[in-house]
């Protein structure tokens, strides 16, 4: 019943039943979900994350030396800083997968509007947080929207170039997406 999707190192994409019910029969929402996960696979993000984690664990990242550096136990890792570094790395991978997923969708005939539509549906259901955390592996919705502005415009141009008659594209007409400020 979770509202989540993820990919494994072998290239399998998993979509939890709650997210599958949310997407329903709307091909554009499925395209938004799957293109993001496919981007993780193509980019080999599992391997990138593993290597970065090893980098942090081996002391190439946030480390401090206490006492005599020649002693094996004299090294101490700043776990808070390492967690923040890992979170920042994870958030960057998510945004990069979002960008590549947008372009993948546009080329395949699914308007980029399906991505913010999916994000806002998930946000409305309370998935994710409004506040950015330095330890979070996924960016908050506001950060994602802000980071995707340029990629969204580029993907929209690509879509319009390839699919001048939107209704005839595989994804059909995009949903109506309205961006509004926080209520005051």
What does it look like?
- The protein is mainly alpha-helical and 184 residues long.
- It is built from 7 helices and 4 strands.
- The model is unreliable at 62-67 (pLDDT under 50).
Notable characteristics:
184 residues, mainly alpha, two-stranded antiparallel ribbon, 7 helices, globular
Shape: globular
Pick out the low-confidence regions.
Answer: 62-67
Strand order of the largest sheet: 1-2
Class of secondary structure makeup:
mainly alpha
For the sheet with most strands, the description reads: 2 strands, antiparallel
Number of strands: 4
Give average pLDDT, whole number: 84
* Termini Cα gap: 34 Å
**How many distinct helices?**
7
Please report which band the strand proportion falls in: under 5%, 5-15%, 15-25%, 25-35%, 35-45% or over 45%: 5-15%
> Rg to the nearest angstrom?
19 Å
The helix/strand series, from N terminus to C terminus, equals EEHHHEEHHHH
Estimate the helix proportion, in percent: 40-55%
């Amino acid at each position: 019943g979770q509202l989540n999707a993820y990919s494994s190192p072998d290239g399998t994409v998993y979509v939890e039943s709650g997210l599958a019910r949310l997407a329903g029969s709307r091909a554009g929402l499925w395209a938004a979900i799957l293109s993001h996960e496919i981007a993780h696979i193509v980019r080999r993000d599992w391997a990138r994350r593993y290597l970065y984690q090893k980098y942090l664990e081996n002391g190439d990242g946030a480390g401090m030396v206490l006492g005599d550096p020649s002693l094996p136990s004299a090294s101490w890792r700043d776990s808070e800083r390492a967690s923040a570094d890992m979170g920042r790395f994870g958030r960057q991978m998510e945004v990069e997968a979002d960008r590549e997923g947008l372009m993948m969708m546009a080329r395949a005939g699914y308007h980029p509007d399906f991505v913010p539509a999916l994000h806002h549906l998930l946000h409305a259901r309370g998935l994710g947080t409004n506040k950015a955390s330095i330890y979070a592996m996924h960016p908050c919705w506001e950060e994602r929207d802000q980071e995707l502005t340029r990629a969204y415009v580029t993907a929209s141009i690509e879509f319009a170039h390839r699919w001048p008659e939107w209704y005839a594209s595989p994804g059909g007409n995009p949903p109506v997406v309205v961006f509004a400020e926080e209520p005051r």
